[in-house]
Fold:
Amino acid sequence: MTVVFRNNNMAILTIKGYQGAIIRSYGGERMSGSNRVSITAGDIEIELEGATIEVNERLGALKEDYTWTILVERLRDAREGALDAAQTTAKNEGLPERGSAFAALLSNCSLTKKPDQVLGAIHFLRDVESLDDAPPRVINQLFEDAGFNPPDNLSLYLNRLRERGFLEIPNNTEDKNRYAILTSKGREHLNQRSSA
Structure:
């Protein structure tokens, strides 16, 4: 599955799926006054090119078509497959592989800002590694295993993510950040970042 978006001076996003999804972002070509959307998902191919308003109108019409529903389902399946593959790798290969799996998650979901990376870390620890408790040392070690600098003030990031409604502390635990889990709003934010 490949999805390519080209827009004035914007990056191209490519999603390729085989046994899961690999997402790469790289610099786009400059196309003066022109926009291009090229989507291929199996046997579904969509090519749109033209001025922004033309592409937006045609894309809006496509979104009402059943083909768009199939396309979105395939993208979801590819994303879930990637998460399943990361989870399987983490369980089968042991902790040394967790760094590369977490780095792939950050890269695949375009999580470049530290708050988004912290949210991704909580997601990874809860949903991929199935941990119930993630003290700061575990989160920081995950960043180090992936070759990233750990957050300078992790508690501040976690509190701000809670204030934004992306994280919550379950009622049956102490009111400590180590028990934080993603809310539906937090999951939606990660989904939006992965398709940005």
